[in-house]
Amino acid sequence: MNIHHIARTGGRLSAVLKEEMGVSANQMNRLKWKDGILVNGKPEHTDFPVLPGDRVTLLLDAPAPEYPAEDLPITILYEDDQLLAVDKPSGMLVHPSHCQFTGTLANRVIGYFQRTCQSSAFHPVTRLDRDTYGIVLLAKNPVIHAKLHALHRQGMLQKTYHALVYGAPPQDHGLIDAPIARRPLPSLLRYVNSDGKPSLTSFSVLERRNGCTKLSLRPITGRTHQLRLHCAHMGFPILGDPQYTTPEAAACSAALGLQSQLLCAVSLEFPHPVTGEGMRLCSQMDAELPQRF
């Protein structure tokens, strides 16, 4: 995949690559030794003097994945030359692991890229737990991936989730401020502890019904299992969650026949990494109580 950019200012090519295109020093080094940096169609070194209006092109080769492509459907929510946003169903890993090499979102996305003749690799910007469902944002090349991660670090990528919880917060809006620490290995679970990392989640009530509540959740920090743990810690665990729960919530989930947590990544808001246009991408899924409830 190639990236094209029209230089806004003059100066060394390296400065344009770094300041205007967000290319890291490592990426520059890899590209320049492969004649992968072009100015007006010609390979140039990073000290080349660029003029405003010059066309800078990066020739990016997507490495072959170490896992197989799978010719299976994906639900595309948005796509352009730099981005792909898809809906991930519950029960699916985002990326292969040493325990599971197939059946993941990555396998399907690589299969889609091959079907559509796109030389892109799998670069997830947002990730979801296996049983959390909804929108996942992907970059189509490492430069865009780095730009989106920079936006994320700056707090400019806003994620909203909907969750069905057992019980309810007493107020309709609030902020959960509870530091999160990792339990000793081999456990992969987290717990609230004063020595943990600062963790913040804002919430608002969308619906109250029969002792359960639909919440809108916005993670201000991005700790592992943050939303699930914060809700359980505050006394309203997410329905269907087998790990961060209470006996009462587990009994309700069992009565409803829930197999996984009712937590959905419903939207993402961020400036487009190339155009700067404000983007709001929405899932086609949501966290809803079973009809019989």
What does this structure look like?
With 293 residues, the protein is an alpha+beta fold. Helix content is 19%, strand content 31%. It has 6 helices and 18 strands. The protein has helices at residues 13-20, 25-32, 105-115, 142-153, 226-233, 247-255; strands spanning 2-6, 11-12, 37-39, 42-43, 49-50, 55-59, 75-79, 83-88, 123-124, 133-139, 158-166, 173-177, 180-182, 190-192, 200-209, 212-219, 263-271, 278-282. Strands 7, 8, 9, 10, 11, 12, 15, 16, 17 and 18 form a 10-stranded mixed sheet that branches. A hairpin with a 2-residue loop joins strand 15 (200-209) and strand 16. The radius of gyration is 22 Å and the shape is elongated. The model has no long low-confidence stretch (mean pLDDT 91).
Q: What's the gist of this structure?
A:
With 293 residues, the chain is α+β, with helices and mostly antiparallel strands. It has helices at residues 13-20, 25-32, 105-115, 142-153, 226-233, 247-255, and strands at 2-6, 11-12, 37-39, 42-43, 49-50, 55-59, 75-79, 83-88, 123-124, 133-139, 158-166, 173-177, 180-182, 190-192, 200-209, 212-219, 263-271, 278-282. The model has no long low-confidence stretch (mean pLDDT 91).
Shape: elongated
**Amino- and carboxy-terminal Cα gap:** 49 Å
Q: Rg to the nearest angstrom?
A: 22 Å
Helix content: 10-25%
Alpha-beta content class: alpha+beta
Measured by DSSP, the beta-strand proportion falls in 25-35%
Q: How many DSSP-defined strands?
A: 18
Number of helices: 6
Main sheet: strands, sense, barrel: 10 strands, mixed
Taken in chain order, the helices and strands follow as: EEHHEEEEEEHEEHEEEEEEHHEE
Uncertain runs: none
